[in-house]
Amino acid sequence: MDKIIDDDTPSDSSLLVIIVDTNPNQRYITEDPKVLTGCLDAIIAFANSHLMQKSRNQLAVIGCHFHKSEYLYPSPGKPLDVRQIDGQYELFTLVEKTIKMRLVNLIKSQPQEERPGESLLAGAMAMALCFITR
């Protein structure tokens, strides 16, 4: 008898963790701040393609700034209320809006009197490893 293969078994799912370094001292940001927007759009497209591959795939995006690192996606607490836009899958809209909104909040929360220093990349990597082992 033929076995029925279920594509949605838990072992078939995969987790993608992306760390976005948004430190304003980065050369690509100091030379042209608009490059960050293009990079963010490419990261969101890559994340959406990962989620599109299998319904059980998971995603985490961590923003790394000079004063703190925090999860941009998934957002702690209640997710945003998102509706379908131009036939776009709701999850893609949720990912895009959540990441952009949380990144703006991360950048706006930086202390104004403090001079930007090094990125907290090691802390962001530790957060990613903790998320993976959950």
From TrEMBL:
Keywords: DNA damage, DNA repair, Metal-binding, Nucleus, Transcription, Transcription regulation, Zinc, Zinc-finger. It is found in: Nucleus. InterPro entries: TFIIH_Tfb4/GTF2H3, vWFA_dom_sf. One of its GO terms (molecular function) is zinc ion binding. Pfam families: Tfb4 (PF03850). One of its GO terms (biological process) is regulation of DNA-templated transcription. One of its GO terms (cellular component) is transcription factor TFIIH holo complex. Belongs to the TFB4 family. Component of the general transcription and DNA repair factor IIH (TFIIH) core complex, which is involved in general and transcription-coupled nucleotide excision repair (NER) of damaged DNA and, when complexed to CAK, in RNA transcription by RNA polymerase II. In NER, TFIIH acts by opening DNA around the lesion to allow the excision of the damaged oligonucleotide and its replacement by a new DNA fragment. In transcription, TFIIH has an essential role in transcription initiation. Part of a TFIID-containing RNA polymerase II pre-initiation complex that is composed of TBP and at least GTF2A1, GTF2A2, GTF2E1, GTF2E2, GTF2F1, GTF2H2, GTF2H3, GTF2H4, GTF2H5, GTF2B, TCEA1, ERCC2, ERCC3, TAF1, TAF2, TAF3, TAF4, TAF5, TAF6, TAF7, TAF8, TAF9, TAF10, TAF11, TAF12 and TAF13. Component of the 7-subunit TFIIH core complex composed of XPB/ERCC3, XPD/ERCC2, GTF2H1, GTF2H2, GTF2H3, GTF2H4 and GTF2H5, which is active in NER. This is General transcription factor IIH subunit 3. It comes from Pararge aegeria aegeria. The lineage of its organism: Eukaryota, Metazoa, Ecdysozoa, Arthropoda, Hexapoda. The gene is jg25665.
